[in-house]
Design brief:
heterodimer, A: alpha/beta, Rossmann fold, 8 helices, 8 strands, B: alpha+beta, hypothetical protein PF0899 fold, two-stranded antiparallel ribbon, 25% helix
Chain lengths: 240, 115
Amino acid sequence: MCDSCGCGDPKIVPVDVHERILATNDRTAAHNREHFRERHVVAVNLMGSPGAGKTAVLEATARALAGRARLGVLAGDLATDNDANRVRAAGIVAESITTGSACHLDAEMVHHALHHFPWQTLDYLFIENVGNLVCPAVYDLGQDVNVVALSVTEGEDKPLKYPTMFQKADLVLLTKTDLLPHLPDISVDRIRENLAHVMPNPMAIEVSAITGRGMASWVEWLSQVARGFSRASLRISPWR
Amino acid sequence: MHEYSIVQALFEQVNETARAQAASAVRRVRVSIGELAGVDVSLLRTAYDTFRERTLCEDAPLDVREIPARWTCPDGHGDIPRGRTLVCPACNRAARLAAGDEIVLDQVELEVPDV
């Protein structure tokens, strides 16, 4: 390549960028977060495998908080309205975000959905992500906290297999604990130990949407998030 | 397979940079991907190679710098050895992720008219 004789060849220049590839998503997420905080809405990004019990947790949360808090759900779903319909039946205002083939929600999808959803009057907005332990961990949506539903039937080593997801979790809900008597080989202690290898502040609550076990602790955790939120104007760390 | 949507965002970012420099082509793209970023590097390469045809990046190889995860004590007691629980063995504080969550466009090599 010629860069000195003036023959008109193009020259090659290195240009430093040093920007996150998802910077556009990050900006939209920051915008969503600003909206939520202005209105004192606690936004919870609820993630987990397909069938981990995310929707059942929301139904049980609606029962536990009936008359005490205003809940809303944006349900990410590949193809159906089933999850939104289920939580609506439980008395929560809900809307689907149909993602088609996309394996995760992104900040723009959430932002768009907010335009058609009465989120401003809520105490808690649950964003039920697409069932998947990989992709949703990568995209900031503007949430205040990440909660991962992990069912006891999924295997004790799930945290070790999906470290990114659990590293980003503020709380893990160990779901379907009513099945533990039928799972002699599953040890909750080993699940907790595996979580401690991938979560810097490992926190897990054992719940059952069927029996209601652990729902009081979960609701208390949510109210702590909400109190932290209104008290310190936003001490809660956003996405790490 | 979110690697495809990451590649789309990468193309937009590269195009923007190229436009700002009035570049006629892109010769190389350099990115950093952390071990805990949630991005599979081989899938990222496949997605890049699939979609770069007929874009400004058509002749630009993708260089990926893979960054290992590094957890460290927030109080300066050093790094947590791999495979351990994520608390500082000296002071018991929760470890901080010091490196390994990068999804970053580092640099592009652009072909610009020599004027």
